[in-house]
Amino acid sequence: MIDLKDIIHHYDSNTAVSLPDLTVENGDELLVIGLSGSGKSTLLHILAGFLKPTKGTLSVNGTDLYRLSESKRDAFRGKQIGVIFQQMHLIDSLTVTDNLKLAQFMAGVKVDVGRIKNICIELDITDKLHSYPDELSQGQKQRVSIARAVVNEPSLLLADEPTSSLDDRRSEDVVALLKRMAEKTGATLIISTHDSRVKSHFSNVLNLDIKKVEAV
Amino acid sequence: MNLLKLSFSYLKRRALNTLLNVLLLSFGIATIVVLLLFSYQLEDNLYKNAEGVDAVVGAKGSPVQLILSGIFHIDAPTGNVNLKEARDLMNHPMVASAIPQALGDNYRGYRIVGTTSAYSNKYGAELAEGTLWDHEFEVVLGADVARNEELGLGDVIVSSHGFAATGHTHDDHDLHVVGIFHRTGTVLDRLILTGVETMWGIHEPHTHEIAQADEDGHSHSHNHSHNHDDDNDNSPDGIEGHNHHHTHGRDITDTSYLGEEYDDEQITTMLIQYRNPLAAAQFPRFVNDNTSMQAAAPAIEITRLLNLLGVGLDAIQIFAYILILASVLGIFIALINSMKERKYDLAIMRSLGGSRTKLFMHVILEGLLISLAGGLLGIFLGHAAVEGIGIMFDEAQQFAVTGRIFIPGEAWIIALAAGIGLISSIVPAIQAYNTDIAKTLSKS
Fold this sequence. Notes:
The complex is a heterodimer. Chain A has helices at residues 40-48, 70-80, 96-107, 113-122, 138-150, 168-185, and strands at residues 2-10, 15-18, 22-24, 29-33, 55-60, 63-64, 81-84, 156-160, 188-193, 205-207, 212-214.
């Protein structure tokens, strides 16, 4: 269960944002929609454990993420949270397999080639295992970045604008793929986007309004 | 997957830049290795060859030249001294022992030294084959001479006048190889030893006639031992106790050259050992003031030579350190630039659960990989260069320099290389350590 409470984040001494309280049950899906500047990036970064909010708590399956030390939070994230970015940010100097192995290594779990192969079969990229990212198409890159996010079987899968640069058909494919992968691993799926095409696929939608507060 | 593999993948990705930095560092390291090996072996060589020699006595002239020619057989001698005067000095109360050397000839560039068995004893040279000379015109070869010229027992060589490989050949004087020394690692390996009388015999007209008479009288195919009594009768010198050997000269013992009949002869130098340390202060002055000869102390002259050489070595060393400094900058700049390109990679690694420490180590490791590769390549290149120099010098020099030895100082080179890796990667590594995931990724 994801539980976000009383979050206020100060960007600097003049600007701050207050985020709504949020509870998502395990295995549920949530779409966060909002215009740029609405704080949805901030929300996602806080959910991912990237950004320590000025106030408030985030609990993921009972762990109060921001009460952990930074290195413990890193380790927790590696094992429990998978993130997919709009720009895929694959490591160009590593092959597809090694990119996935890197995710296991950085999370401090044992490198499991069988697991990597299974995911690649699932995502239909087995013939690209030994290719470098710059030899892949955009679609293939995106599937590798999804594979990287789910390789450690996280309980929370976050996606930041996964569809914004795709055409309608591709956009549908990616949403379906994300939902399928989350379902398969039993992960909670939270997608943050300004792309309203995605809306129809989700029953649980959070519409984020700009809710800037004066810094105290 | 591990940090080493990860760091290596980035180096491979910018292979050309990596290669450039590795090469730059390796040239600097190689220069230092060459200096280390060269000066180590040079000093070792100089002091080892001069061991047990308190003073060299020879004709007046440059003391450095006297040491170089008298001990190391590099330079030309300062001249010759009269045997009579030299003999008086041998009996000087401060002198414990004096080894005579008569120089002036070579065989294909290898110097022929007329001396006594005390000379080979001084270098601890043992015979690998045959015996020492006990007649005129019998020679014993140093190990390198025998090996390089493919000479063996019973072979006959012809000496040339002077010290260069080309020179007037005394083709009427065959020298007979009767023995070959084991390797000693000293200058002896590149010398041909014989009795003092042989050197006189080669140069003097009347001894030519002796040899000539023998040549005329007997064919070499005969068994000479049966006929040598006749030889003795024919010999104007009439030295007693002739031999059962194949050669035709006078008998030689370690003291036979001191005989008064040789008063008019000359030797080139004497290697003197003092009876007590006090002589070091008095003996050279005595020789320089009271005789037509001079005495030079190897310890003093070698130190002077090394000091002179040191200036040149220091200059090369500065050059080496400039190269190394340039490579530190090279690695530093390469890593700093790489950090800029990789800031997303680093943020991603943290988002995947990598700790700051892991990222820090990842960048340090990259610097270490370059610097250690440069260090190892540099050590290899340095040794190869010294070996190359050794082979080139082999033709002309008495110093054996080899790249096939390792000296303790080289452990420091590895430490130096590791230090270079650390110094040049610490700032980029701190940058990696400070990677802020949220800030970096929200900029994309």
